[in-house]
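Hi U.,

Before I forget, here's the chain from the pilot set. I'm dumping it here mostly so it's searchable later in email.
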Amino acid sequence: MSRSPRVRWLATALLTGLGACGGSTDNSGLGPDPELSASVGTVAADEADAALNALSLPTLLTPIGATIAAPCATPSSTTDSDGDGIPDDATWILTAPPCRFTGYRGGTLDFVGQLRLQDPTPDAAGFGYAATLTALRATFTTSGDNPTSYSVTRNGTRSLSGTVAGLLLTADLQVIRTFTGLSDAAVDEAWTVKFTADSPLQINEPIPSGTLDVAGTFGWTRGAQSLDLTVTTPAPIHYNAGCTSKPRRFDAGELHVAGTFDGTAGYVRLRWTACDAAPEVKFVAD
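Structure:
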């Protein structure tokens, strides 16, 4: 796979959200190194969580499952000509603190970087936006006597459009994901996420329960590894907005990341089964 100069630069220049902590991994039988499939599955879960949070402006700034007394960053402009909650054109500079969420999934989540949001139709209220992410980094640190941490840094663009029935999120991102004791992974992500709401969406109201149908690609590079991967959801991922006491709110669904891993064709399968449970991750050979 051909890499753009920007992606190659990011892979070496960035050492540093949001993601899947824990979860079970099963690589019984033939297949790639379990660490590789587990790492690919972890990044896919990170990006599924991030896609859910990207369905609204409030959850872009305060991810689902986190709590904070007030927005942690102030936009450069509050002009919102159509009153739909999306500013005409505003930039947030995030620093931690104040963009620090303690107690998130049993640890601490820090956000730093820059987010620019523009309303594509500033004179007509709607759900859409155009976003530019610049070195937007989420760092999660576990609690306890021997804490560990990892970070996810995203550069690129997202766009959102939709109606009361559902939303369409398009992402073109360069992602750097750190791993304890291992080289960073550089991921070139091109995803579309169709969100189908269980009940009608309302402007300036929280996202209701619904399903995420993901399609797209991952270009994965880590050390000497280079993978071209295809992402699908044969069983769309269900978001349960009623799991308000739980930090993880996917309760069903399946995501596949398919390609050739260490010479074996197959896919990494992520399967969600209950609120507050990280997905099961398993490699399945073709």
